[in-house]
Amino acid sequence: RVPIPTLERLATYLRVLLDLNEGGVETISSQEMEHYSGISAAQFRKDLSYFGEFGKPGVGYSVPQLIECIERILHIDQEQPILLVGAGNLGAALVGYPNFRAHRFRIAAVFDNNFVKIGRPFGELVIEDIARLKEVNAQIGAKLAIIAVPASAAQTVADMLVEAGITGILNFAPTVLKVPPHVFVRNVSFLQELAVLSYHVAEGTEI
Amino acid sequence: RVPIPTLERLATYLRVLLDLNEGGVETISSQEMEHYSGISAAQFRKDLSYFGEFGKPGVGYSVPQLIECIERILHIDQEQPILLVGAGNLGAALVGYPNFRAHRFRIAAVFDNNFVKIGRPFGELVIEDIARLKEVNAQIGAKLAIIAVPASAAQTVADMLVEAGITGILNFAPTVLKVPPHVFVRNVSFLQELAVLSYHVAEGTEI
Ligand SMILES: NC(=O)c1ccc[n+]([C@@H]2O[C@H](COP(=O)([O-])OP(=O)(O)OC[C@H]3O[C@@H](n4cnc5c(N)ncnc54)[C@H](O)[C@@H]3O)[C@@H](O)[C@H]2O)c1
Ligand SMILES: NC(=O)c1ccc[n+]([C@@H]2O[C@H](COP(=O)([O-])OP(=O)(O)OC[C@H]3O[C@@H](n4cnc5c(N)ncnc54)[C@H](O)[C@@H]3O)[C@@H](O)[C@H]2O)c1
Predict the structure, then answer these.
(1) pLDDT digits (tens, 9 = 90+) for A12-23
(2) Mutate to test the interface with A, among B78, B84, B190 (most CBs of A within 10 A)
(3) How would residue B102 be classed by pLDDT, with cut points 50, 70 and 90?
(4) B60: which DSSP letter?
(5) Are B148 and B94 in contact (CB under 8 A)?
(6) Are A22 and A111 contained in the same domain?
(7) Which ligand is nearest to the CA of B150?
(8) Which has more confidence, A50 or B62?
(9) What's the CA gap between A154 and B114, in Å, rounded?
(10) Which of residues 7-46 of B touch A (CB under 8 A)?
(11) Are the C-beta atoms of residues B170 and B188 closer than 8 Å to each other?
(12) What's the CA dihedral at B93, B98, B102, B107 to 10 degrees?
């Protein structure tokens, strides 16, 4: 089991590596990784030794090889369809996010319950009626979903997602979801991020 | 120094406690906290012992007392003004977030460089011209800011924020910011959250 802080760093390295790969860069040193990722060269070397040796002293690490390895560790070597529920402000920001494709995540469908919105274009998609969630996911086969609806609607939406076969939920609504034991929920709250930031600014400590 | 995972849990407890306080609830047991926060009762008791005793066996913990204590630890017992740069989709979702006030954070001003948007209402605010950032913050005196602009503009905006006296930046743009040593940056990437979620779903492990 890889500890969560390590997983988060691996995801950061992957974003940097995917950007470099697109720019045609073949190798990277741990100092360069520090410059691009903001994570220390020593931490980078330590994280990689966790998974076996990669670099050649003096030559650096192979970018394509690192990408392949991290994707395998994170189990994102296959393209994964994601369902998005909530075609509001947050949903629009998520659909417009530039690096989606690179991480092999693909927002495959977006759902809403507002009849004015249903049928309208949303990024490259068309907004579907939430009532058709199960039917649409029977075609797509997604396992992961994002909840971007108001807190009052989030539990109802979570129940529908579980019924449609979803086993991983990224929840942006400020509420705790009750789901069966086989379903994983990760809550995102930028207020927590602000609270952690404000603590470090007040204490003057390293993050 | 409080470790980051503990800080994040404290911020979660605080959100639960503030909601309960608004509902007039006076005391809470560790089991109730587990139900509302999704964090185990044992972890809650352990976190609190870190900061001194609170609960009375059989009676539970005082909600107002816990709030006061956690706010003091996180240094959010004073109201903090926050600057927001980027009046787009993400900015709109952040301004509309329901729990802001409760954590004593207040988005005091929002800035953009798009002349069509400047001067328009945005939540309870009016969109200001980014060129007036330093002048506006001389009045507000904010120390914290949120960056919600495209990655290509983020470094320029960060430089302007530092010049305007900001010492803590919550960065949503997918890029690493270079700032002076006295400035703290916390990067938020929902793709990292997705990667961690997808890892746990694939491994079938506890988050
Ligand atoms: N975690 C964070 O950091 C963070 C940041 C900003 C916003 N948020 C939260 O994200 C959520 C979305 O915010 P927003 O600004 O996009 O809100 P919004 O009102 O702009 O969008 C919400 C959308 O959900 C739809 N909806 C409501 N009930 C539904 C249902 N039962 N089924 C399907 N669709 C439904 C609405 O029609 C609307 O289109 C809110 O819960 C907000 O609090 C979280
Ligand atoms: N970290 C995450 O989880 C996450 C999620 C979604 C979006 N994002 C990122 O958040 C950012 C905003 O996304 P969005 O969907 O709101 O984009 P958007 O295009 O809707 O909004 C961006 C706003 O920034 C303004 N802007 C551009 N350059 C500026 C400058 N120099 N000074 C001031 N304002 C400027 C634009 O005029 C626009 O109003 C993007 O970088 C996006 O990649 C991050």
Answers:
(1) 898 889 888 888
(2) B190
(3) low
(4) B
(5) yes
(6) no
(7) 2
(8) B62
(9) 34
(10) 7-8, 10-12, 14-16, 36-38
(11) yes
(12) 30
- The tens digit of pLDDT for each residue in A88-112 reads 999 999 998 877 766 678 999 999 9
**A–B: how many Cβ contacts below 8 A?**
186
How do beta strands B125-129 and B121-122 pair? antiparallel
Which chain A residues are Cβ-neighbours of B185 within 8 angstroms?
Answer: 38, 207
B80 closest CB neighbour out of A100, A193, A198: A198
Asked if residue B207 is part of any domain, the answer here is no
Nearest CB to B170 within list A37, A38, A197: A197
DSSP A88: S
Instruction: Give A158 Cα–ligand 1 centroid separation in angstroms.
Output: 13
**Residue B77's closest CA among B85, B86, B68?**
B68
Two structure tokens written together for B115: 């002349």
Residue range of the domain that includes A60: 4-73
- From residue B116, alpha-carbon distances to A154, B92, B102, B124 in Å are 34, 16, 32, 18
Are B31 and B38 in contact by the 8 Å Cβ rule? The answer is no
Region label for B114, one of left (φ > 0), alpha (ψ between -120 and 50) or beta (otherwise)? beta
Q: Which residues contact B134 (CB under 8 A, 6 or more apart)?
A: B160, B163, B164
A84 and A66, same structural domain?
Answer: no
Same domain? B86 vs B11: no
Helix axes B30-37, B4-22, angle to 10 degrees: 100
Domain count, chain B: 2
**Scanning every residue of chain B, which has its alpha carbon at the shortest distance from the alpha carbon of A79?**
B198
pLDDT of residue A36: 86
Give the Cα separation of A17 and A26 in Å (integer).
10
Q: What percent of chain A has pLDDT over 70?
A: 95
A204 part of a folded domain: no
Q: What is the spatial distance between Cα B24 and Cα B102, in angstroms, rounded to a whole number?
A: 14
Cα–Cα distance measured from residue A206 to residue B186, given in angstroms and rounded to the nearest whole number: 11
**CA pair distance B57, A43, nearest whole angstrom:** 43
Q: What is the distance in angstroms between the Cα of A56 and the nearest Cα belonging to chain B?
A: 26
Q: Which residues pair with A184 in a beta bridge?
A: A168
